[in-house]
Amino acid sequence: MARRHCGRNFPLRDDGEVLKIDTPRDKVGGPYVVVVKSLAERWAIVAMEWESGPCLGIRWFWERNGYPYTFDWGRWLVNSTSLSEIIRPGLPLEDGCRRMLEDFLAGRIPGDRLRRAFDPANITLCWNRI
């Protein structure tokens, strides 16, 4: 579901709302999980697919629309596979969750399996917040 006006008034505490940002729909798979976010600095990193390839996406929830956006529609800044590999080691994740994210980014597991692994009912340590 596309989301408009994903800026300062966006309900960033609600991961379900964050995961609704999926534009452009013909290119984005998922997003599957919020990997990490900062409520204080208003940004989030998600595991998603871009043109059928696994990657990390990031966006900032500032001002009226946040960044990035197009015509008031929230979007993700898509990180290439090589950039995702640079970012991944610095993410504050529990070891089991880190391995699942690595498997997703390497294409060894699908996004739905990653979503189940990061479910707070299963492993609460995966839900790191800064």
The secondary-structure element order is HEEEEEEHHHE
Tally of separate helices: 4
Count of folded domains: 1
Would you identify the regions where 5 or more consecutive residues have pLDDT less than 50? none
Please tally the β strands and state the result: 7
Provide the helix percentage: 10-25%
Q: Average the pLDDT over all residues and give the rounded result.
A: 85
General form: globular
Rg of Cα set? 14 Å
Structural class: alpha+beta
Distance between the termini: 26 Å
Strand order of the largest sheet: 6-3-2-1-7
User: How large is the share of residues in beta strands?
Assistant: 25-35%
The main sheet comes to:
5 strands, mixed
Can you walk through the features of this model?
Helices cover 22% and strands 28% of the residues. The chain is an alpha+beta fold and 130 residues long. It has one domain. It has a five-stranded mixed sheet with strand order 6-3-2-1-7. Strand 2 and strand 3 form a beta hairpin. The longest helix is centred in the C-terminal third of the chain and has 11 residues. The two termini are 26 Å apart.
